[in-house]
Amino acid sequence: MSAVLAVRDLAKNFGAVTAAANINVEIAEQEVVGVIGANGAGKTTFVNMVTGYLPPSAGEIDFLGRSILGLRPRAITRLGISRSFQVAQVFASETVFDNMLIAFGVAEMRGPGLLRILHTESRARRVAEQLERYRISEYRDVIASSLPQGVRKLLDIAMAMVSKPRLIMLDEPTSGISIEEKFDIMDIIMGALREARTTVLFIEHDMEIVERYVSRVLAFYQGEIICDAPTAEALKDPKVKEFVIGKEYHRGRAGDEGKGEKAGA
Amino acid sequence: MQLAAVVLVDGLVYASYLFMVGVGLTVIFGVQRVLNVTHGAFFAFGAYMSATLIGLWYGADLPAFGGFLMILAAAVIVGVVLGVIIERGLLKFLYDRDEHIVVLATFAAFLVLEDVILLVWGHDPYYAFQPMQLLGSTRIAGLAFDNFNLSMIGISAALATGLWYALRRTTWGKMLRAVIFDREISRAMGINVTAVFLGTFIIGSMLAALGGAYLAPTISVQPGIGVEVIVLAFAVVVIGGMGSIPGALIGAIVVGISRAAAIHMLPQIELFVIYGIMAAVLIWRPEGLFAPVTARKI
Amino acid sequence: MTRLIDRTVIGLTAAAVLFGLLALLLPDWVRFIATQSFARGAVALGLLVLWRTGLVSFGHALFFAIGAYAAAFVQRALVNDAFVMTLAGMLGGGLMAFALGFLLCRYRGIFFALLNMAFSMVLWGLLAKNEALGSTDGMGVASPEFFGVELDGGATHLALFYFALSSALVFAIGVHLYLRSTLGSMSTAVRENEIRLEYLGYSAARAVHVKYVISGVLGGFGGALMAMVVGQVDPDSMAYWTISGEFVFIAILGGTGNVGATFIGALAFEAIRSAAFQWAPTVWQLIMGGTLLAIIMFLPNGLWSMVARLRERRAS
User: Fold this and answer.
1) Which of A37, A45, A91, C54 would be a feasible disulfide site paired with C192, CB 3.0-4.6 Å?
2) Is 60 exceeded by the pLDDT of residue B295?
3) Cα separations (Å) of C149 from A40, C20, C73?
4) What average pLDDT score do residues A80-99 get?
C-alpha cells in the first residue's frame, strides 16, 4: 500500500537555529504513530510544516502521492490532513454547538452554498452525532471558554475531524488533562478516530499513553529523528532512553512516571 | 532657489507645531495604547488660552517679552487641567475596554470640548499678534520670514532634544520606556503604572496645548482648528511609528515639507498628499518608519 | 432557528410596515429626517457586518461620498432616475471596496481603522480641490424622477421616504440572512480565532474581503440616498473624517446585536441632533458627545440592549 504521508529530507532553519533536519518518514494507511521528544526537539515544527503553517527550508512532503509543498493550511485541510492544537483552538465566546456548526458549515459548503443558512435541521443532526461521538453532548450549550480542559481538547479534535480527514495530527492531545482523565479521554479519541479509519500521528509526552495507543514511535532530538521503530523496541532504544525518556522507565507507577516525564522533558 | 527656501522654511515651521502635537499623541499611544482624539481639543484650547492671556498681558501694558511666558502658561494650564480631567475622569474607566471604543470615547470628549470652547470664547476669531511682531523678520534667499515662525523651529528642535535626553538618560525616561515595552512586567517590577499613565497624559496634553499656544500669534484663532490638526497629527504619528518619539519628529517633517511643497508647487494635491503618504506608509510598513521594538510574546 | 423566515425577519417587516403607516400621519420634516436616518443607518449596517468580524472602520465616509457623488454624476451624465442613481452609488461603493479590499483584508485592529481613515481623507482632499466637481461647494442634485415619472417637491420626498424605508427593510433582512449563512458566520470565526478558521478550510482574508465589499455597497447606497434627499453633495458633509465618526457613533448607539438596531440608532441620532439644534443650538456638539459617552459608559451594547432586556423580562 502506498504511503499516506511521505516526507523526504525535510529541514527547517530559523537563521542559525536548526529546528528540523534530515526528516525522512513514511506513514502508511491507518497507522497510529506516536511522536516523542523533549520540548524544542522539533515535533511541533514538523506538524506545522506538514500542515502548511511553516514553509520548510528544504525537502519534500507528499500526501497520497502528490506534493503538498507550499500549500496553505486551508488547502491542505481540504485535501485531507487535519490537526489539533496543543492549546485548543476554538471559538471561545461561542457555544460548543455553534463551534461545531461552523466547522460543519465550512467543511461542507463551497461557492454559492456558503450563502445557505448555516443552522439547518440536517446539519444540527450531524453536529449532535459528532458531539455524541466525542462524548461532549452534555456541554452542547456551554460557552467554549468555560469548558473544562479535557472537554475543550475533545472539541478541538472533534472540529478537526469534521472534514473526515485521511490523516490527522494531534499535538499533545492530553496535555493539561489530569492523570485520572487521560486514559478516558484517549479512549474516546482513539475510538472515534479508528471508527473513521483515519491515519493518526500524535505528539505525546506521556510514555504510558504512547505505550497503550501507539504501534510505532518517531523519536525527535534536536530537530532530527533519532529512532523510528515499533513501540516496544523504540522505548527500549538506548538513544531514546538517553535523549527523550530521561531515565529508566518503570511499568505500573502511573503517578511517578507522569511527573518524572514532565520534569525530564 | 527661492522656492526651495520657502518650501523648506514653511515646511519646517509647519512641522514644528505638528511635532508638538504629534509627539504627545504618539507617547500617549505608546504608553496607554490610546489613540487620543481629544488631543485636537487640547491644541485648540491651548491656542485660545494663549490668545486670551496674550491679550490680557499686553492689555495691561506689562513688559513686552513677558508675552512669551503667556504662551507657556497657557500650555501648562490647559495641559494640566484638561489632562487630569480627561485621564482621571474618563480614560481611567476605559483602559480595559476594546481599543476602538476608547478612541470613540476620546472622539466624544473632543466634541464636548469643542462646544466648551464655543461657550467660553464664542464664534469670533481671536488675534494675538504681539509676540510675532516683537521679533521682527529675517531675510532668507530674498524673502522675509517672521522670526517668530523661525523660533518655532528652534523650540521644537530643543523639545525633541530634551525629550530624547529625558527618555534615554533619566530614570523617568527609563520607566516610560519600560511601560511602553510591557505594561504588566513594569507593574510587576514595582513601577506605578497609574502614575505613569497620568503623568504621560498630562505631559502629552501640555505639548499639544503648547503647539496651539505657540501657533496662536500667527493665525486667527477660530473654531475648527482642532478638527483639522488632529487628523494631521494622526498622519504624523502613523508615518513616524506609533509610540516612537523620533518617529514623531520624522513624521512631522515629512508631513510639513510635503504640505509646504504641495501648497507652493502643486496646490491641487495639497489636501490629500499627506493622507496619501499615510496610506502608503500603512501599506508598506504598518508599524511606521520608526516603530519601537515590541516584545514577542511566547 | 432553522427557518428562513425567522422571528427577526417577521419583526423587521412588521416594524417597517407599522412605521410606514405611521409616517402618513407625520409632518413632512419628520419624514425628511427619517429618510436621512435610513441613509446613515444603511452605512452603519455595513459597519455592523464589519464589527461582527472584529473590525472597525474610521473611514466609511469614503463609500458614502462615492455613493453620493456617483449619484450626482449619473444624474448629469446619464439619466435622472432614483433607481439608477442609487444603483450607481451602490456599484461605486462596491467596486471601491472590492479594489481596496485586496489590501485591507489583511489588516486588523487600529491599523485597519486608520488605513480606512487615510483613504477617506485622500478622497476628501481630492474632492475638495477638484474644480470640476465643485470643490468645497460641491454639486447640486436635482429632484430625482421615479421610472421616468417626475413628481413635485412634496411627492418626491414622500416617494424617497418609502423608497428608503423599503430599501432599508430589504438590506436589513438581507444582512440578517447573510449573517445566518456559513459565510456570514465566518465573521464570528474571524473575530474569535482566525487560525482555527484557516485550519477548518477557509481563508480569513477572503471572508473579510467579502464583508468589506458588503459594507462598501451599503455605504454607497447611503450616500446616493442622502444626495437625493438633501439635494446636494459636498466633501465636507460627506467625506470628512468626522462623518466617518458619526457612522461609528450610530452603530454603537443602536447596538450591534441586531440588524434593525442600526436604524434605530440612526433615528435616535437624528432625533437627538435635531432636538439639540432646535433647543440648544450652542451646545449641540456637547450633547452629541455627551450622549456617546453615556452610551459607552452605561449602555455599551447600545439602545438595542434595552429592547433585548425588555424581551427577556417579558419572556420570564
Assistant:
1) A91
2) no
3) 75, 22, 20
4) 93
Q: What is the pTM of this model?
A: 0.89
Question: Which residues from C are below 8 Å from B when comparing CB atoms?
Answer: 56, 58, 103, 107, 109-111, 113-115, 117-119, 121-126, 128-130, 241-242, 245, 248-249, 252, 282-286, 288-293, 296-297, 300
Cβ atoms of residues B215 and B199 within 8 Å: no
Q: Do chains A and B touch (3 or more CB pairs under 8 A)?
A: no
Distances (CA, A) of A185 to A148, A152, B32, B206, C153: 12, 11, 44, 60, 73
Alpha-carbon distance of C267 to C250, in angstroms, equals 9
> Tens digits of per-residue pLDDT, A16-60?
888 888 899 999 998 999 999 888 888 888 999 999 988 999 999
Instruction: Kindly report, residue by residue over B80-136, the tens digit of the pLDDT.
Output: 999 999 999 999 899 888 889 999 999 999 999 999 999 999 888 988 888 777 777
From C263, C301, C39, C63, select the one nearest C173 (Cα to Cα).
C263
Contacts for C90 with CB less than 8 Å, ≥ 6 apart: C67, C217, C220, C221, C224
The one-letter amino acid code at A261 reads E
Task: Compute the distance between CA of residue C111 and CA of residue B99 in angstroms, rounded to an integer.
Answer: 11
CA distance from start to end of chain B:
55
Residue of C nearest to B123 (CA): C282
- Using 50 as the pLDDT threshold, list the residues of chain C that sit under it: none
**Averaged over A125-152, what is the pLDDT?**
93
User: How far is the C-alpha of C64 from the C-alpha of C265, rounded, in Å?
Assistant: 17
pLDDT higher than 90, residue A128: yes
Provide the residue type at B86 as one letter. I
Cβ within 8 Å, pair C109-B99: yes
- With CB atoms and an 8 Å threshold, state whether B94 touches C130: no
Q: What is the mean pLDDT of residues B177-203?
A: 85
What average pLDDT does the segment B20-32 reach? 90
C193 touches chain A (CB under 8 A): yes
| Cβ atoms C58, C243 nearer than 8 A | no
Residue C199 has its nearest CB partner, among A77, A117, A120, at A77
Residue to mutate among C7, C178, C190, C199, with most A CBs inside 10 A, is C199
Q: Residue A257 — pLDDT band, cuts 50, 70, 90?
A: very low
In chain B, where do the E strands start and end?
Answer: 137-140, 143-146
For residues A65-75, average pLDDT: 91
- Mutation to test the B interface, candidates C293, C298, C299, C301, most B Cβ within 10 Å: C293
Give me the pLDDT at residue B293, please: 54
The DSSP code sequence of C78-107 is T--BHHHHHHHHHHHHHHHHHHHHHHHTT-
Cβ–Cβ under 8 Å, residues C167 and C42: yes
Mean confidence (pLDDT) of chain B:
86
CA–CA separation, A26 and A6 (whole Å): 4
Neighbour subunits, C (≥3 Cβ pairs < 8 A): A, B
CB-based contacts of A125, cutoff 8 Å, min separation 6: none
C274, C32 contact by CB (below 8 A): no
Q: What value does the mean pLDDT take over residues A192-217? A: 91
**Is the CB of residue C137 less than 8 Å away from at least one CB of chain A?**
no
- Residue C126 CA to its chain's centroid (Å): 23
pLDDT in tens, A112-126: 888 889 999 999 999
Distance between CA atoms of B46 and A208, rounded to whole angstroms?
71
Taking Cα atoms as reference points, which of C224, C238, C233 lies closest to residue C84? C224
Measure the CA–CA gap between C202 and C191, rounded to whole angstroms: 14
The HSE-up count of residue A123 (CA atoms within 13 Å, CB side) is 23
